[in-house]
């Protein structure tokens, strides 16, 4: 399926990963609409493509508005990212997490069904696996989430497949492990850069540093979503997305200190305890997405960190666009 001239909706489109997907979908020639409630997403993330897309300030918990925008824009393909994507916040407010991630997904699915959408690509998470029984984790691994976030993302994924089997609406689930790059608002690498900017002599690391993560640069992650949209054989399946770069948090901290040329000047301090729901070891088996979708990550970890560093430094010094809906116009229309 070619994306050129397709009417595409990206939910949560002002967020970190989906805003990059918006840019890529525009490059592919798609007619893109992005919706976001701007709770976590930032309108400035859409700066690159703002004159080529439609934007609506909509919360996926509002079924009527979601259904209306899909109908008005005659949407054919949906990339569904809108969610609470913060594990600690899901622990703090599990009700909001479930309403957004599970019920919000239900609203998107029902709206797509009512309007004959051709395909839904769902942004799932490695959190659906819980603590691994074995590594690397493949898509056949049991699904036992240990956080409210993981449970709500799994609920959305299961519902999507139920819609596929019951109603025949094409659905694909993409289980994201750890993505990094420009525009990310939090997470380990961003937090390290922020802490080292504030105090280059001491870096506090949550936990023991033994946690393992498998990082994928944001341009590679978004490419995986495009491949899933274009490939008809992806329908009815789930795929892991990771970069094939498993590394411990301890090793990552040391690597970033070397990249920032702070060796010998920075003490690393481990708190010994991370947040509730934090999985110790997340390493992906990506054989399935490589063989079936021909996914090939292109950005090596060191190069990706350098790109993130350059973005962080430029975004930290440049004047940021005010994250407000007042007086913002995209395609000549107010954000509503």
What does this structure look like?
By secondary structure, the protein is of the alpha/beta class. The chain has a single domain (about 5-250, about 270-335), classed as NAD(P)-binding Rossmann-like Domain (Rossmann fold), CATH 3.40.50.720. It is about 40% helix and about 20% strand. Strands 3-2-1-4-5-6-10 form a 7-stranded parallel beta sheet, with helices on both faces. It has a 3-stranded mixed beta sheet with strand order 7-9-11. Strands 8-12 form a two-stranded parallel ribbon. Helix 2 packs parallel to helix 4 (about 95-115), helix 4 (about 95-115) runs parallel beside helix 5 (about 150-165) and helix 6 crosses helix 8. About 45% of the residues are buried. The model is unreliable at about 315-335 (pLDDT under 50).
